[in-house]
Amino acid sequence: MSNAMNPARSFQGLILTLHAYWAARGCAILQPYDMEVGAGTFHPATTLRALGPKPWNAAYVQPSRRPKDGRYGENPNRLQHYYQYQVILKPNPSNLQELYLGSLEAIGIDPLLHDIRFVEDDWESPTLGAWGLGWECWCDGMEVSQFTYFQQVCGIECAPVSGELTYGLERLAMYVQGVDNVYDLNFNGVEGEGKVTYGDVFLQAEQEYSRHNFEFANTQALLRHFVDAEAECRALLAAGAPLADGERHRMVFPAYDQCIKASHIFNLLDARGVISVTERQSYILKVRELAKACGEAFLQTEAGGALLRAA
Amino acid sequence: MPDLLLELRSEEIPARMQRKAAGDLRKMVTDGLVDAGLTYEAAREYWTPRRLTLDLRGVTARSRDVHEEIKGPSTTAPEQAVQGFLRKAGLFDISQAHIHNDPKKGDFYVAHLSRPGRSAEEIIAELIPAIIRSFPWPKSMRWGKASAKPGALRWVRPLQSIVCTFGPETEEPVVVDFEVDGIRSGNITYGHRFHAPEDIVVRRFDDYVSKLEAAKVILDAERRKEIIRADAVNLAFANGLEMVEDEGLLEEVSGLVEWPVVLMGTFEKEFLAIPAEVIRLTIRANQKCFVTRPGDAAGDEAKLSNHFLLTSNIDAKDGGVEIARGNGKVVRARLSDALYFWQTDQHDLPDLDTLQESAARFDLDLSKPLDQRMARLDRLGVTFHAKIGTQGERVARIAALAEELALLVGADPKLARRAAVLAKADLQTEVVGEFPELQGAMGRKYALLQGENESVAAALEDHYKPQGPSDHIPSDTVAIAVALADKLDTLVGFWAIDEKPTGSKDPYALRRAALGVIRTLLESDLRIPIIEVAYRQRNRWVDQLLEHDAGSGAGDRLSSSDHTDDGRSVARDLLSFFHDRLKVYLRDQGARHDLIDAVITPQSDDLLAIVRRVEALGAFLDSEDGKNLLAGTKRAANILAAEEKKGTRVADAVDASLLKQDAEKKLAAAVNQAEKDAGQAIQNEDFSGAMRALSVLREPVDSFFEAVLVNDPDENVRANRLALLSRIRAATGQVADFSKIAG
Asked: Start and end of every DALR anticodon binding domain (chain B) (predicted)?
């Protein structure tokens, strides 16, 4: 195997190995969603597709933005922009834990050499109105993945339940590459001249975005954008509403984009420190209401499993 | 007699739920079997992260046949009554019933029911699925294909297999066959997830335990704990270290592994610059590892070594080198976060210019980190309670009160104010954000680092004391002033918005706050006028509301509270809450509750005085004089009460000219003297003296009742004598309401 594809030698190799592993298990390998999100769960391929009765198996990388986690590139572990590898299987197969452990072996983690553990972690996303039970998966004390059985998404009971796996790619890569600083990760697997590190790709961006997130993001403008996104989401949902009882909703995905946008703007405002504790709650509630409305609309679409009323 | 082996194997069960779940399983199974008419000799439950197991010995093989007669109506009863009887007895036709005769009632129907005994297997096969379906997990979930339909089985995590075997020791046990949501009971389990993934056929508990152990699963959690504890202590000792024991962590860790292997990891010494408590919590909360101290610092809580102990779940091929290294990496990453928090908290905040207004309000010095944090707490308008207001407003009230109380408790008012102003500043620090349980402790550390007076620094931590009945009260006067101010302000606030504790509900721990005030006052010999303090503190709050609402134009908080009242009723009501808590406290201390009731009046707002009175009264009543005076006073009170009820006239005052007999003259003189002396003694807070002054009444009261008939035919004499009795009641009433004393 060339280093460019080797999960222990290159960041991209890790991703490609996971793609190959999950592709071989029937997942559609999707691409990242083209919007700023806080986690892979926000991708409509998870949030919306977890709803309704239709089976759905997909895997993808999702760049995730956590404005508050910026450290100006000075912390070896913490980033305001990082990658999550996301797998969603609906309904969850009964051997999901074994499938997950198989994926760790595929990237070179031997469970008789490394201490793999499933530690209680009830996952909840207040902004998405979602929760599930599951674990943090530990490898030698490090949380490398989240493993969740979705019980509710967008405030709607999941039927059937999806299994969601979220791998923290940088952490895993640091682990398998044996690197202590995320910026030292080998990105492309080349040694010597031509080697590209994670730092080459992202260090400057981390510094610049930290400045932006904490110091310069225009809070007045962001506050307005939040209001706009909220209004737009509702307007689109209203405009796409079923024309008659039993008809389908016609504009869920665009409306959901506005929900994602509102969520990210809220995160930025939070990083800027302009949201008080009480306001915080009300912002979270506002985003959740949008997510709920989108989820309910999705159930009225074909992908959401809505049956058309017999003509 | 047969034994039952039950194992419910699932995906990883949260550590904190395992012990209780296993106990619940034992109780539900044994209760269920007993209800069904079976008995058993012994039951013991076990648990690991992946299984709940029940070992039930000596179960009866069958339940007994049960014969029962149900009496029905008379044979001449109307059809409706007969139908009702058939339904009740479970008969199809009245011909199935027998007819009995009673000499009084005549012929009537009786159903002879006999339920044959059932085999234990049959009972178990019915019972276990029902238990699984109704198991009381604190949180449970659905999973897989079955979750598409309503009513799917819920378990804490997906349930994977059920072992259920039953049989006597001398025979091959059988599988008790049943099915729950597609999971069929059997005799197959699995060992350690990685070391022994093959299936294991089990027969009964004995071979089950030994086969599991061979498959690297230690079933007994207590044994896992002992292994971890012993190995950790030894490994530390071998490295010249002492393990910092942590029972809660040990319990948790034993619920995270089936095969514990203790290893040692290391982090860089420079992290030891972080306070020990922060290191311990960081490593404990995130990594579930034990910390160690250097062997020569045994018992020194402030000192840690740079080695920690972790418990892995495998016997690693390389002896655990990789695992220890990996854990070390994570601990380092966590500690570098902690170090970042610890250092950030000692540095300037970015937006200092926005904090000027808040700084001025609290007289803060913005060159100091903790002052900046307090300014930000105020500036951000962080809510304390939606109806009470912000943390900033709260701190302002506490500071004003602490300054006032300082004079009463003998503290320097300036220091008390300063301590109160900084008391909540650490809520804005990164470390407390990460570890809320360190509030107060961190404030103290940061205060010392910025050169605060030591009493002020100590008060930042100690004003939260006492945290419970076994915790100490603060000792330094500055801390006392702030502790009292903080607790009283909280109580007044919740009283003002009418959110008092009810029944078992006390979400804001107001009872604890009141008890803290009580203990602090009593144990430090302090007295504060609670009504006055509460009244003024409540007005401070109202003033803030008015100011706030004038500024924002919002009147919601004001309108939601009844501020038209002058606040006196809030203060009085709070005082009566203090009285209730004081009674509970004194009763726990062994005081007689009738004495407490006797001395407390709705106006007694000096708690220390109440306690002194109770003590003095108790001592007095133990003496002969006390007992007799109590009897005499009660007699006087009873006569008065009876006459008052009849509407007999009682003179307003004793008229000396109407006193005829010696005994009543003497009593009148003695009452005058005793009332005066006792009143004087009470003024001087000399309660024993007051009791002594009253004790001289004993003899004249006794003589009076011996020699004098109250019910004189002359109405005026009678009214005068009743007035004299009421003087006795009044005189003793200065000290206590004797009518409330038992005996």
From this structure: 633-729
Tell me the CA end-to-end span of chain A in Å, nearest whole number: 57
Cα three-residue angle B618-B620-B623, rounded to 5 degrees: 115
- CA nearest neighbour of A262 among A241, A219, A233: A233
Q: Which residues contact B462 (CB under 8 A, 6 or more apart)?
A: B440, B474, B475, B476, B479, B483
Give Cα separations from B742 to B66, B596, B636 (angstroms). 56, 11, 15
Distance to chain A for B737, nearest Cα, Å = 50
What is the CA angle A105-A106-A110, rounded to 5? 20
A positions 64-93 inside 8 Å of B (CB): 71, 75-78, 91-93
- Which residue from B15, B314, B329 is facing A120, i.e. has the nearest CB? B15
The answer to whether A141 contacts B330, with C-beta atoms less than 8 Å apart, is yes
Complex ipTM above 0.90?
A: yes
CB contact under 8 A, A111 and B314: yes
Candidates A133, A144, A164: best to mutate against B (most CBs of B within 10 A) is: A133
Question: pLDDT-derived band of residue A27, with 50, 70 and 90 as boundaries?
Answer: very high
| CB pairs < 8 Å spanning A and B | 133
* Residue spans per domain, chain B: 3-61+119-214, 66-115, 221-344, 352-590, 607-740
Q: In this structure, which long-range contacts are made by residues B200-204, counting pairs with CB atoms below 8 Å and at least 24 apart in sequence?
A: B202/B5, B202/B7, B202/B163, B202/B165, B203/B165, B203/B172, B203/B173, B204/B3, B204/B5, B204/B165, B204/B167, B204/B169, B204/B173
Dihedral over Cα of B268, B274, B277, B279: its sign: negative
pLDDT band for B9, please (50, 70, 90 cuts).
very high
**H/E element, B488:** helix B477-496
Residue A178 sits at the chain B interface (C-beta within 8 Å) = no
Whether A54 and chain B come into contact, CB under 8 Å, resolves to: no
- The whole-number pLDDT of residue B554 equals 47
pLDDT digit string, tens, across residues A116-137:
999 999 899 999 999 999 999 9
Do B162 and B181 touch, CB atoms closer than 8 A? no
- Give the 3-state secondary structure of residue A51: coil
Average per-residue pLDDT for chain A: 94
pLDDT the model gives residue B314: 97
The dihedrals phi and psi of A236, each to the nearest 5 degrees, come to -65, -40
Closest to B148 (Cβ–Cβ): which among A115, A122, A159? A159
Which amino acid, residue B712?
D
- Contact by Cβ (8 Å): A158, B146: no
CA angle, A263 then A267 then A270, to 5°: 135
Rounded Cα distance between B670 and B724, Å, is 11
Asked whether the beta carbons of residue A115 and residue B313 sit closer than 8 angstroms, the reply is yes
Set of chain A residues whose Cβ sits within 8 Å of the Cβ of B325: 140
When CB atoms are compared, the residue of B145, B327, B329 closest to A91 is B145
Assign a CATH topology to domain B607-740. Isoleucyl-tRNA Synthetase; Domain 1 (1.10.730)
Neighboring chain B residues of A76 at a CB cutoff of 8 Å: 333, 336
| Tens of pLDDT, residues B496-549 | 999 999 888 888 899 999 999 999 999 999 989 999 999 999 999 999 988 877
d(CA B619, CA B484): 31
> How many angstroms separate the CA atoms of A14 and A12, rounded?
5
Contact list in B for residue A277 (CB cut-off 8 A) is 380, 382-383
Q: Answer yes or no: is pLDDT of A293 > 90.
A: yes
Using CB atoms, which residue from A53, A93, A122 is nearest to B148? A53
Name the residue facing A160 among B145, B318, B326 (closest C-beta): B145
Find residue B128's DSSP bridge partners: none
Is A276–B326 a contact, with Cβ atoms under 8 angstroms apart? no
The alpha carbon of residue A189 is apart from the nearest alpha carbon of chain B, in Å, by 22
